[in-house]
């Protein structure tokens, strides 16, 4: 019975993290994955089902080190960049755009170097973009199975952050493509080093790329004070 309870607790924690990212982080956009999560939820305890309701209502006000304006700007950048890439590349590429504090990460696959260069130029021209990190691979698009594996690996990294003592999981955005994990966020040197160590311990991670915007401990304290005031 104790093993069953532990399994259920782990399942509830995994479901919570997946749902948190679905509503707050925006990376879990696959309809099939969302439906699978709902099916899993029906097998969990009443506590987990109540968690579903709490997450859907409260996730949007979760702690984020970016200002509300910066979060909205990042969402706008992502929408504009994806639209511009679709127009420029058509159906020749498979790509994902992630913006964090106006630093933009492009991941996915394109057929040739010219397409990769074009993608970086197009995204760089989007209004308010500060920096572009072009991590597009010149290769065939990943299969659905590979994308599912990346999705699962991403969730495991997020779960590891959630369980790591002294690490604020909300401070990080995690993107996983072809078993490479990209770490974004407004973090201190101490936090960045801790996040890398935690990620290295997750089985299946082949490469870690840091796309952090480093801040000082004093600035971190100021962000915490700002969050405390907004939560009152």
Number of helices: 8
Could you tell me how far the N terminus lies from the C terminus, measured between alpha carbons in angstroms?
42 Å
If strands are numbered along the chain, what order do they take across the biggest sheet?
1-2-3
Summarize the biggest pleated sheet. 3 strands, mixed
**Estimated helix fraction:** 55-70%
User: Are there runs of 5+ residues with pLDDT below 50, and where?
Assistant: 20-61
Percent strand equals 15-25%
Radius of gyration: 18 Å
Q: Let me know the average pLDDT.
A: 81
H/E topology pattern: HHHHEEHEHEEHEH
| Protein structure class | alpha/beta
Which helices and strands, and how do they pair?
Layout: H1 2-25, H2 31-41, H3 46-58, H4 68-89, E1 94-100, E2 103-110, H5 113-124, E3 131-138, H6 144-163, E4 173-177, E5 180-187, H7 189-200, E6 207-214, H8 217-230
Parallel strand pairs: 2-3, 5-6
Antiparallel strand pairs: 1-2, 4-5
Helix pairs in contact: 1-2, 1-3, 1-6, 4-5
Plain-language structure description:
By secondary structure, the chain is an alpha/beta fold. It folds into 3 domains: 1-62; 68-138, 2-Layer Sandwich (Histidine-containing Protein, Chain: A), CATH 3.30.1340.30; 142-232, Histidine-containing Protein, Chain: A. It has 8 helices and 6 strands. It has helices at 2-25, 31-41, 46-58, 68-89, 113-124, 144-163, 189-200, 217-230, and strands spanning 94-100, 103-110, 131-138, 173-177, 180-187, 207-214. Strand 5, helix 7 and strand 6 form a beta-alpha-beta unit. Residues 20-61 have low confidence and may be disordered.
